[in-house]
């Protein structure tokens, strides 16, 4: 009988991983990106005492990375150990780590780069007569050496970075532009802090000409280095950091006691942006922090600086270049492989110091206005304010320039005012019922919890704008007509109706017709909102009781409608009722056995659940499904009811058409430019100049034209010769810089500045189907199909939802 020995075999024994595998595994953890590779080589050059460091890239670093310096060079005795793991000249034992002042100290960088690329070194020590070229294998062993002419210094070349790791290499090449941008940002930090060192960087694409990326002049001043990298325009917006001792209030906030704290532990120097609006940045792309001249990412310090800056300029981010000097025994730099995370003693004291100093600097620059200046309000301004206030009926309308201004009302009017186009036809009436369900639905489609109440002017009587078909047995009472009056329709501005249309709850009586696909007898006139004189007066609610003068007569009064009741016999069977109860119990039991049925759509129609509802739609609805949707009808002349299998959806006809028109304008509109009399210098950084030149076609589609001279000096290679204009919209250098920032993250992708998007959103809103427009089945189907032709159909440009799930027929039938 054959025995089964599979269970009697011993478990895998714990053994040491072979050295080659350990080398490959650990190397991938030390060098993670192009930025890390360049950082390690630049740090080696600066540690070697170089005053000139040159970084050369080919195809943004995908093919070649070469770093040359004029440092001390490598002695011949150190050739063998140059690229071996944990071989270094910076320290001998762990105790030396406390006082280490060089960038590198682990002896891992060159060894890891050998494992990830083809590495070669050309070096000439100060004591040597001729240079030597060294070639190493992936294990860091020297395999070839030969004489090579070179002045004093070292050149390290990396070819095909990450090619020994196929998955990472493929991802690296796919995202090479992003890797290149991150590398430039890291290199900029070393350019700023390395005073007395001239750092240059250039890139060559294919067989083309080598283009400069950045360079410094080797100045002894951090300010000069900032100007060399970012231009003189950036220098004009900077404030030198002025260090102050922490105030008592701020120390209490951090739980610090002055008597127990060390004195003069930190010394902070550097520069930050002014707090004036327009001088900050749209992102945190120019923030550099250093601890003892070492570039790092102190998260708490970064957060604090931005929070203080937002107290004075909430819409932008500051330029920051701060160096924190502290005793070396209070710092732990051996935290992460890239040494970007650093632990500090007394970190709360540093935060209190920074907060006190920044607040003092920014407070000195605020509230600088003349006390003799008295603002005046012109008649035109008052007219504009009346128009603005009309957008929110909860704010009293200013009737006359002589009337007093309600500042609270003005503030609310400005905060609620939308600078968008109209979403409702002029003169068309909108039904507005009351009730909790109605308010919830209105607040959802307005994007606000507040439901505006229309209060008619006392100078204009209410006039109903729509007839109510009165039929026998109708539940609609003559005193319940809630359509807007002529006064309200003319007082409300188009902008106040945009992206804020109201609709009635299915639970409330409707005064608007429900247009169904089964109704084929509608005349063309029936498809337009009617505005006729009604025989039913609108109920006018007032907080004060009505008063009647003598001799006055009431020609019309509200009276109950007499409805003739009809008696119908009801068939009832106790056995049938018992059978129905048993069937319901069986269904519930079966449901309990099968488990809870999976519900694809759980989010409710509520402003607080907009994100959840959008995520569900993204997950469950694909582009092809919009073509399969069946049109049920139109609700309240504003919403299309559709059915997909057993799910019922509600689609906002104006919002969905606006989103389609907006994306079409985004994709196909080419803005016309206005020529400038004199070309304008932009003073862009070398990096930004390269981004602009590589994406010149995208700038042309946005209406910008440039004069490019590749042979000119850096920061003067690009001049603006044409700006886009469109009616009252004008654009400038801020829009160019915004485009450059977006293209740095997504090179080659068509994008628009935010102000161009605002213009397109306004145009798309005005040309879209309005609320109050009756649509045929064909027109409704067209709008639904269009949703499947755009990338993001779930929200209009102004943030209004386009589609929501109403119900599932299967679940309703089971309940």
Automatic annotation (TrEMBL):
The keyword Zinc does not apply. SMART domains: DNA_mis_repair, MutL_C. Residues 445-554 are annotated as: Disordered. Residues 631-775 form the MutL C-terminal dimerisation domain. Residues 532-542 have a biased composition (Basic and acidic residues). Keywords: ATP-binding, DNA damage, Endonuclease, Hydrolase, Nuclease, Nucleotide-binding, Nucleus. One of its GO terms (molecular function) is mismatched DNA binding. It is found in: Nucleus. Gene3D superfamilies: 3.30.230.10, Histidine kinase-like ATPase, C-terminal domain (3.30.565.10), MutL, C-terminal domain, dimerisation subdomain (3.30.1540.20), MutL, C-terminal domain, regulatory subdomain (3.30.1370.100). One of its GO terms (biological process) is mismatch repair. NCBIfam families: mutl (TIGR00585). Belongs to the DNA mismatch repair MutL/HexB family. This is Mismatch repair endonuclease PMS2. It comes from Myripristis murdjan.
